[in-house]
Write a structure and sequence with these properties.
disordered N terminus; globular; Rossmann fold; alpha/beta; 13 helices; Helicase, Ruva Protein, domain 3
Length: 309
């Protein structure tokens, strides 16, 4: 029994990570009034943006590497288990309607598959072979980003090992600066959020940090790929009434046209916001604007530059 009690193999090996340490600031978590309980958690949450800020130089490198490869036909693969994997699935899914991104450009691989989105799949995160299988088709033009709060998830480790063997760019997003896996990736992204308010519950600060890293990375990647105009979502897919109204608003904001005039331009453009924007900014006819966008790879700024007399 003694060997098991002190971290023997029957009960797993203790994880060496700040995320598993006890938080001295929240020891009274179960004894304080509800308002104070919430304030304790909120005080810990406020530490996350500062921790994320320290990772931005490495994140910038990852964005640039990913943009280069996606522009050449490569893909970005997120790999994670539990909260990490679920956040990855959400981020990847939201890129399709927000930026009119084609399927297969940014993909998420969740340990345990789609069923793990709604409930835990026992043992899924410990399956390194499944991690390898998840990215078995990647190549040198692809990017594999592992997400693991403790930096040791076998599913993620297996994926990174496989990606490395196939010459893909690799990265790890972790809240553990001591993670051994950091030595095996091209781009280490450490967001040291420290001990959680509830010891070991990495869906709290570590999860928040991963969400910030993911949406910052993917938004910056879309900007670098030319899927925005200024800070406007000109690639949005108008699939419902709210988004159709938003496309009119975006055209108004980008051009200074009135809503009726913007709506008329969009109608002439067949509802394509990018085509309408090039038309409004250059005076081009729909066919001319569409052709300019095709030549520019869908980048509005380049299409406008090429079309303007």
């Amino acid at each position: 029994m003694g060997a098991m009690d002190d971290g023997g193999s029957a009960w797993g090996t203790a994880v060496d990570s700040p995320t598993e340490e006890r938080n001295e600031r929240t020891r009274a978590l179960d004894q304080v009034p509800t308002r104070e309980l919430l304030e304790l958690i909120n005080a810990e949450d406020r530490l996350v943006p500062g921790a994320v800020a320290t990772s931005l130089p490495h994140l910038a490198r990852l964005v640039d590497l990913a943009a280069e490869r996606v522009a050449r036909g490569g893909a970005v693969h997120y790999v994670g288990a539990g909260t990490s994997g679920r956040l990855a699935v959400i981020d990847a899914a939201e890129l399709l309607p927000t930026f009119q991104l084609h399927e297969g450009v940014v993909l998420a691989h969740l340990a345990g598959g789609h069923s793990a989105l709604a409930q835990a799949v026992e043992g899924a995160e410990d399956d390194a072979a499944a991690g390898r299988d998840a990215v078995s088709a990647v190549g040198a033009e692809d990017v594999v980003i592992g997400l693991a709060a403790s930096g040791r998830t076998p599913f993620v480790a297996g994926a990174i090992a496989q990606a490395t063997e196939q010459a893909a760019v690799t990265a790890l997003v972790t809240s553990n600066p001591r993670a051994g896996l950091l030595r095996h990736v091209d781009v280490p992204i450490v967001v040291d959020t420290g001990p959680e308010a509830l010891t070991g519950s990495t869906r709290l600060k570590a999860g928040t940090a991963q969400k910030l890293i993911l949406h910052t990375f993917s938004t910056a990647l879309m900007v670098r790929l030319g899927r925005t105009w200024s800070n406007l979502m000109v690639s949005v897919v108008a699939t419902n009434e709210k988004l159709r109204a938003r496309t009119v608003t975006i055209l108004c904001q980008a051009t200074g046209l009135s809503r009726p005039d913007s709506a008329a331009v969009l109608a002439s453009a067949g509802g394509d916001l990018k085509v309408g924007l090039v038309m409004a900014l250059t005076g081009a006819e729909p066919a001319q604007a569409r052709a300019a966008l095709e030549r520019s790879g869908g980048v509005v700024r380049d299409a406008v530059r090429a079309t303007t007399p």
